[in-house]
Amino acid sequence: MYGALVSGNHGLLLNVGTIIFGFLLPILLSLMVFGKKKAKTRGVPVEVGGEPGFTVRNNRFDALVELPWEGASTLAALFEQACTKYGRNKFIGSRKLISRETMTSGDGRPLEKLHLGEYEWLSFTETFNRACDFASGLVKLGHNPNLRVVIFAETRAEWFIALQGCFRKSITVVTIYASLGEEALTHSINETQVSTVICDSKQLKKLAAISSNLETVKNIIYIEDAGVSVDSGLSEKMPNCILSSFSEVEKIGKENPTDPILPVKTDIAVIMYTSGSTGVPKGVMMTHGNIIATAAAVITTIPNLGIKDIYLAYLPLAHVLELAAEAVMLAAGCAIGYGSAWTLTDTSNKIKQGTEGDASALKPTLMAAVPAILDRVRDGVRKKVEEKGGMSKKLFDIGYKRRLAAIEGSWFGAWGLEKVLWDFIVFKRIRSILGGHVRGVLCGGAPLSGDTQRFTNICLGAPVEQAYGLTETCAGGTFSDWDDESVGRVGPPLPCCYVKLISWEEGGYRTSDTPMPRGEVVIGGLSVTPGYFKNEEKTKEVYKTDEKGVRWFYTGDIGRCHPDGCLEIIDRKKDIVKLQHGEYISLGKVEAALLTSNYVDNIMVHADPFHSYCVALVVPSRRSIESWAKNSGIECKDFTDLCQKQETIKEVQQALMKAGKDAKLDKFEIPAKIMLSPDPWTPESGLVTAALKIKRENLKTKFKDEVHNLYE
Hints:
The protein is α/β, with parallel strands linked by helices. It is 35% helix and 22% strand. It has an 8-stranded mixed sheet with strand order 4-3-13-12-14-15-16-17, sandwiched between helices. An 8-stranded mixed sheet has the order 9-8-7-5-6-10-11-20, sandwiched between helices. Mean pLDDT is 88; it is low at 1-23, 29-36 and 410-415. One of its GO terms (molecular function) is long-chain fatty acid-CoA ligase activity. One of its GO terms (cellular component) is membrane.
């Protein structure tokens, strides 16, 4: 990714005058010291009902925010009113496929490479008309509001059109990750008694394989993909289903228009099946009012959000982060360009050489990301800097350190003339990786390390804001303020909800702790969902409604509240293990610290009460390990063989010790033994979620023998 910055005769081989200027100006500017900014109040304590605890609300609003504007109380109403309001403005865009090629990698694996064209756009009005046509087509197929639809597809324009089409008929949409396995997929469809499945052609084969186990499915609507033919024999494999293409349903609807049947805010809009880090997936029921409240709240936190913004959509729409983000963009009149994690940048896996990645073609101003993606961006940039060395590395290091000192200290150069200088010399070309116009990145789905947050913030020259929410709270929870330059925190409560800390005596976290109250994070308010579909027992376990009618969700996460009202997630109840000698170890905290090592692509730390130490399964960074092996003169047959060598294990172990010490972990928190797993953990393998969080129980089951051997 970083190659563009340091390649070519004109990259960073600047003239002597510019280099001297780059060295001397920071020194001069460093003499200009201003007092530190006074801490800004972002959240304030408030008295609420329910279980006693320490509660805060957003400082800018006295009452909870419910609507983006009067009358937009459902997603159907929001969609119609936004399309009327923004009319001919461009809204959703997709890239045209020019060609699809299959190549062979160095180890013999087939690699698909795509040649993609520019973005082609639909206006708000055109999108609305297509959604209406699709809705009428569903009716013609025999669908009615009492039947549910499942969307089982990758993020794309048709996903959004299908969703809004269903809402035009008050149809509840069930969302399922495209990466979900056959057993979980069958469970989710049968539990919700779905009548119609909307999928892309890639997922069609999965449905055909399990069609005999699907109890209620009558219609399957597949989204056509350019260059991909649908097996003509699929209809015979699914004799109980009517197979139709997405465009056919739209055409039928256009020829047979029907009146809308619009929902109310308390109707269930979406049943979202989580990929779940434990157990079988659970279906979270979200009302129209829940999603609208989150969208209305987020709009208040992003400055100058509007029709000039372009949002790059590539995260799974079956994940609450992306679903909520696109509702925000709809309400604000922003353009949404659809892409993919595999085609995101010019060097992404599926991008044909010489073809622009999605970010380069779209030039977005706003993006959402999960920590794993930003970690890879950070590691890629750092690796390219190290490889280039020389003056390029010196300039990068100086520029980065100066910007870091400016942000964390009180130097004038934080965002002034010195920033312009370093942007020109160093950071401008890094930003071109994501199109060069990004003014803000929202990160959610899992904890983001402070190191990655600051690194990305400096390199992009834009806020990288953490948000905290869950599927059960419709992504509504907390959201970092745009002007908050701190890292490691997730911000104050969104104005649609309250955040409460409740003491957890067993874990030693209390609201009476100093200097900050600590405890289990409980979220209450308009974004909190009704509960789990057909799972009253689990719903009663983690949801409560207080005497004032406010609904609360008990997250299981441990947080502390800073004096300015911002939340920091510091632990998770389920991740805490008591070791043999009585020490408590937080697995998630340790994993987050060790992930900062350049050698680590993914990691699962394991501990049990019968030992005084912990162990770890590590997916090593193939590029970093192979580079180290080459420089060390270590020969091997393949990467699997390299991961089994004692020299490699020792090298990674030492790197983990350093990362642990840098993070101030105690000795017992640093894994005493490790195993290197050469194969990456993917959502398809069931070892990580769609948001790339590890599925601890699945990993423990798969690597049961390996973990046992580490304790021998």
